[in-house]
Specification:
Length: 125
């Protein structure tokens, strides 16, 4: 696992677990969990039956749908990081298999690439 000691790994695991709870909490405010892992469906808000209320419901629903997708993606990233930790494969770059810098992992625990590979990728875009 490269430079990750047990304490650092615990810190990262705790961060990821907190983040998972936060994301699920946010999603639960406006969406219902489905039978599929990490999948939620935004609820259509009910403001009333007037035309402007219906328009507001649709607008809020559209905002919630894009928020739902963003939060679900974050939740998937968090869960895959936790899975990698459980499998003992956490902290390695998925492109070059080198250890990801500890500072990077602490700042962004869902990182799956080292800084060098990330720079190469963003320059290609």
């Amino acid at each position: 696992m490269g430079m990750l000691d047990k304490n650092t790994l615990k810190t990262i695991t705790d961060k990821l677990t907190e983040e998972k709870a936060r994301l699920e909490g946010e999603l639960n405010q406006f969406a219902d969990k489905t039978a599929v892992a990490d999948d939620f469906n935004a609820r259509l808000p009910q403001y009333g039956d007037k035309e402007d209320e219906n328009a507001a419901e649709v607008a809020t629903y559209a905002d919630n749908l894009s928020l739902e997708r963003a939060l679900e993606k974050e939740l998937r990233d968090v869960n895959s990081a936790l899975k990698l930790i459980a499998e003992g494969k956490y902290g390695l770059c998925k492109y070059c298999s080198q250890a990801i810098e500890v500072k990077r992992l602490l700042a962004r625990p869902t990182s799956t690439s080292c800084v060098a590979c990330k720079k190469t990728l963003t320059q290609e875009l």
